[in-house]
Amino acid sequence: METFATKARLAFRAGRWESGQRAVPAEVPVAIVYNGTTQAVMMATPAALDDFGAGFSLTEGIIADLSEILETEIVTVEQGIELRMWLAPEAEARFQARRRAQVGPVGCGLCGIDSLKEALRALPALTSALRLTPADAEAAMKGLMRHQALNDTTRAAHAAGFYLPGQGVVLAREDVGRHNALDKLAGALARQGLSAGKGAVVITSRVSVDMVQKAAMIGAPVLMAASAPTALAIAEAEAAGITLVGILRGADFELFTHPERFDPKEAADVA
Q1: Which of 117, 250, 222, 122 lies closest to 163 in space, CA to CA?
Q2: Given 28, 74, 108, 149, which residue is catalytic?
């Protein structure tokens, strides 16, 4: 499927109407199906779906590693797309034990969770020798902007990227949903054998608690965002050992948790 479409529109500018066209992102229902059972239906951009399936499975704790997904099939149906995955027995047992109905429209990362305990699941405590500078933070967001082809076309897509000191943003994924973009990045990292513990995840959105949860589940010690975090996101990042950077605009940002990972010297080798 195409990731965007061109639609007719009327624009009102400088006191007058103008006809024309606007590129808008594609948004389709993507059903995530494990061993024949639908776990979630997410509204998503129909791209990098192999990454999406792998990343969602990892960040939601369905699988411990990629070896527990035995097969993946992407099937286009009349209503949307089915992302069918077959799990190893140990993952199937884990899935059945925590199965829940979940429908995730854009902007909602915890829709359908059926208990408060599941919403605030225990997170791994992260340790990392990673050290960054303020200039690294600036370079990470600037580097992510260069990986946003869909947003450049539509001005309506989020992105998540992976920044390595000295190398810049080495991997990025886009989607109409901020959670989906992060899941796609998580899957891409795993499928390419890159350790999230060696760099920083950078996102274009605000930081809600579920974004912190997803970062923790893939072992990312640093999460940087263009917008602000919620109070709960800050608390969970502190508990999980994640350095949380928010309101990252140009060279300016705010640091909320675990500042020890930031070196005050101004140096970043690659934007």
Answers
A1: 222
A2: 108
